[in-house]
Amino acid sequence: MTYLDAGQIDAYRRDGYLSPLSAFELDEMADHLARLDAIQAERGGRLSPTFNIKAHLLIPQLWDLVRDERIVRPVQDILGPDLLCWAASFFIKGTGEPQHVPWHQDATYWGLSEPRALTAWVAFSASRPENGCMRVLPGSHARPAPHRDTNDAWNMLPGREEVALDVDESQAVDIVLQPGEMSLHHLLLIHGSKPNAGGPRRVGFTIRYIAGDLTQTGSERVSATLVSGRNHGGFDLETAPEDVFHPAALQRHSEIVRKWMRMVSGEVSKRSA
Hints:
With about 270 residues, the chain is α+β, with helices and mostly antiparallel strands.
């Protein structure tokens, strides 16, 4: 049984994205946001950048979210029954803050054997132009684009990258989402977002799904979370957190993140050579 209809799948193949899709009820997502706020309040008001890498390995609520069938089923319609969660993290912009995301492709530093992967962008709060919603360039997912380092401290991407192309912003489409809605986009789709110029806080949770038979290139073997079907052996499988920031989960997460960062650094070095 499919979740997406043929027209939606065709639109994704053609445009490189699909939005909006309904995933959660408003009250359910309000509860998710309240629980996140409570966790952040206990940790100085935010998740540290390190804890925000694969955050689902530290917070049971997020572990359940990346495996929720309301997200997973439409992803299966695109990528197939065998799915892994390669990473998951928040992109949060406070009112009037300068953080932004330049035009880029997700795949730049992923180091995957094939581009059969996508990002599910789940709106914990409303995402609109005034608070820096995601913007996409439809049809820009045909091939990898060159990227360069911005050296911009307010660039929210781990590699501080941006596409080394002249982007015609008149072709951009705003991805407007209500709390509980999500978008799906191909890992080669060029996309970005502006700062939150004065709208309400924008909280988005990005889940990176890959087909279960992919492998990681390079010498660093990293891990992933089995979401559905089976793992074909290309990744070590991750373990659910026992509780929020449980000591055993923290220890596992620390080693996983070290490997992940070495892999990303290797990909950055290759593209800088």
